[in-house]
Amino acid sequence: MQNNIKKNLLNFSNILICLLPFALLTGPLVPEIIIFILSLIFLYISVIEKKWHYYKNGYIYFILTFYLYLCTRSLFADDLLFSLKSSLIYFRFGLFSIAIWFFIDNSKNLIRYFAISFLFTFILAIIDGYYQFFNSANLFNIVSRDYRMSLLLNDNTSLGNYLARMFPLLFGVLIYSFPKSRKNIFLLFLLFILTDLLIYLSGERTALGLLVLSSFFIIIFINEYKRTRILALIFSLAMIVSVSIIYPDIKEQNI
Q1: What is the pTM of this model?
Q2: For the segment 77-102, what is each residue's pLDDT rounded down to a tens digit?
Q3: How confident is the model at residue 145 (pLDDT cuts 50, 70, 90)?
Q4: What is the mean pLDDT of the chain?
Q5: Distance of alpha carbon 126 from alpha carbon 21, whole angstroms
Q6: What whole-number distance in Å separates Cα of residue 18 and Cα of residue 139?
Q7: HEC string of 18-69?
Q8: Residue 142, Cβ density class (10 Å: 0-12 exposed, 13-18 middle, ≥19 buried)
Q9: Which terminus, N or C, of the chain has the lesser number of Cβ atoms within 10 Å?
Q10: What confidence score (pLDDT) does residue 112 get?
């Protein structure tokens, strides 16, 4: 493969990867398109350059085995077409994972750029969430279909789930990409508190459970940030108690 073609494809892929966190705020369609394009680019380059080691590893064998298991189970389901519709395309998750592995190997600063883009997107989602809480509509004047908060560019009421599922990844890429400093610790401290409170305000119990789980793992396994997470959790709980007293409806939503 010509170096210029590969370089252009890699640069385009890096842009798509950095845009992926923002795309998730628009609903499921745009992220699926991005994942499909990234997977195609990876397949094209890896086959042309015969990068077979990305396919010959224990992770791929495990995913392939699990995929065959799902497809086999689907054949015995009561609603065959409905079951096969989800299981047949499940392989895309494994393919996308090794595609990201490939792009990281071939792009020195990809994780750092992704962390910066992800951080700005996450802050935007937080700002939008608090704006919704006080104005009953988001920054683009999209009104939620129920009491929960919608995504930035979609009326899907799953902002809490977005924050709960994305924050562990954001936390990971931030501490990987940037050195530990007072400024960065303070930033993480604020993000912890703002995210904790907003997930509680969203009224999504699943998101709240995921938040508790991720907090537990951070405290247990990441010693360097254990104190930061515990202090942030104390502040968050104090604010959550205060909000529950002022807004009893929010307490009922979470219970």
Answers
A1: 0.89
A2: 877 777 777 788 888 888 999 999 99
A3: low
A4: 90
A5: 13
A6: 22
A7: HHHHHHHHHCCHHHHHHHHHHHHHHHHHHHHCCCHHHCCCHHHHHHHHHHHH
A8: middle
A9: C
A10: 96
Contacts of 23 (CB under 8 A, 6+ apart): 30, 31, 34
Does the pLDDT of residue 168 top 90, yes or no?
yes
| pLDDT for residue 147 | 67
Rounded to the nearest 5°, which phi and psi values hold at 105?
-65, -30
Tell me the pLDDT band of 75, cut-offs 50, 70 and 90: confident
| CB proximity list for 156: less than 8 A, separation 6 or greater | 27, 150
Contact present, 152 and 25 (Cβ < 8 Å) = yes
Please spell the DSSP secondary structure of the chain, one letter per residue. Answer: --HHHHHHHHHHHHHHHHHHHHHGGG-SHHHHHHHHHHHHHHHHHHHHTT-GGGTSSHHHHHHHHHHHHHHHHHTTSSSHHHHHHHHTTTHHHHHHHHHHHHHHHH-TTHHHHHHHHHHHHHHHHHHHHHHHHHHSS-TT-PPPSSSSPPPTTS--S-HHHHHHHHHHHHHHHHHHHS---HHHHHHHHHHHHHHHHHHHHHT-HHHHHHHHHHHHHHHHH-GGGHHHHHHHHHHHHHHHHHHHHH-HHHHHHH-
Spatial distance between the Cα atoms of 27 and 4, rounded to a whole number of angstroms:
34
Spatial distance between the Cα atoms of 103 and 54, rounded to a whole number of angstroms? 11
